[in-house]
Amino acid sequence: MDLLTLAIGIGLFVSLAFAEFFGIAAGGLVVPGYIALQLHRPLNILMTLSLGGLTFGFGRLVSGVTILYGKRKTAFLLLTGFLLGALVQEFLHRNHLVFSAFSPTLSDSEEARVVGHIIPGLIALWMDRQGIWETICVLLTGSVIVRLALIVILGGDFQP
């Protein structure tokens, strides 16, 4: 089985467990699986969470001017997160040499990136529904649990 598929499957289980036992979501059902595979790259996680927060803030700003709720809000946040992620990814890709000068540990094949395409939008959606800190804390906790489960299942030499 492919590593991403396994991580998402375990993440689904962990997300559902958090929702059932604690009544709080881990930023969307698939998000902990994606984040778990990036725990060794904290810059990627920080960028993704920051984009989620920026998307959330932009959604709040637009909500004050227009009617934005339900499916419309969900689609708006997912699309905004996707577009912001694509813009940031393009900017990082074009300026990789500039950023690698500041971070000598970054190799040419390992440029900083946003995790997933819709992950920032899903994070923003759950920040809006249940709160910023609740979402971040449960997301990171769930991701660590998924990562630990992957290590147990795949053995000690697990490399994402």
From TrEMBL:
GO cellular component, one term: membrane
Superkingdom: Bacteria
Pfam families referenced in this protein's UniProt entry, alphabetically: Caps_synth_CapC
Statement: the UniProt record of this protein carries the keyword Protease: no
Biological process, per Gene Ontology: capsule polysaccharide biosynthetic process
Keywords carried by this UniProt record: Membrane, Transmembrane, Transmembrane helix
Keyword Membrane: yes
Residue spans crossing the bilayer: 43-62, 74-92, 135-155
NCBIfam families: poly_gGlu_PgsC (TIGR04011)
Name this protein carries in UniProt: Poly-gamma-glutamate biosynthesis protein PgsC
Organism whose genome encodes this protein: Leptospira fluminis
Lineage: Bacteria, Pseudomonadati, Spirochaetota, Spirochaetia, Leptospirales
Gene designation: pgsC
